[in-house]
């Protein structure tokens, strides 16, 4: 499929690029998308949660009442989780939530995400651009020219571009990634995907079979 190439002022350059059907035109696999997004969100979790258990509570170690004859349950420690101020029973411990997915499934998920955005006409191809210096105003001007300043946007560049990245960093609704950093969550979380012309080759290389 062919898509028109725009410049950063939003005007048609008169050129068109061919989007690979193997990357941008497949039948989306919803389960692959689910697993990849689940892994991405799981990897964001710090897993540093911790509560004190009975062995970590400060308190008396004496037996608080006699074993028999009280008519209530036996109790040997005030630090037990059944008493107020005692340790938490089966509380959270530090752990990693990350899990592995195979490379082919992750590739399928990202192809599916891009295909969904293309079919919904949410992908814009622009010619390569750069700024002389990092300025948020320059990036905002690009968003307004492309008529996406009120939308959540994802810019995909061919390589690391410090000026463009720093210009976008203060904008909570815009994110800039390299072609090698594409992830399923980021693609689907954006309302508009802006792909630079030179980054298409990198996307095709990374996501083609």
Automatic annotation (TrEMBL):
UniProt cross-references to SUPFAM superfamilies, sorted A to Z: Ribosomal protein L4
Pfam family, one: Ribosomal_L4
Coiled-coil regions, chain positions: none
Gene Ontology MF terms in the entry: rRNA binding; structural constituent of ribosome
Ranges for region Disordered: 45-77
Keywords on record: Ribonucleoprotein, Ribosomal protein, RNA-binding, rRNA-binding
Single GO BP term: translation
One cellular component (GO) term of this entry: ribonucleoprotein complex
Known role: One of the primary rRNA binding proteins, this protein initially binds near the 5'-end of the 23S rRNA. It is important during the early stages of 50S assembly. It makes multiple contacts with different domains of the 23S rRNA in the assembled 50S subunit and ribosome.
NCBIfam families (UniProt xref): rplD_bact
HAMAP family in alphabetical order: Ribosomal_uL4_B
Family to which this protein belongs: Belongs to the universal ribosomal protein uL4 family.
Subunit structure: Part of the 50S ribosomal subunit.
Name the UniProt record assigns to this protein: Large ribosomal subunit protein uL4
Species this protein is from: Polaribacter vadi
Gene name per UniProt: rplD
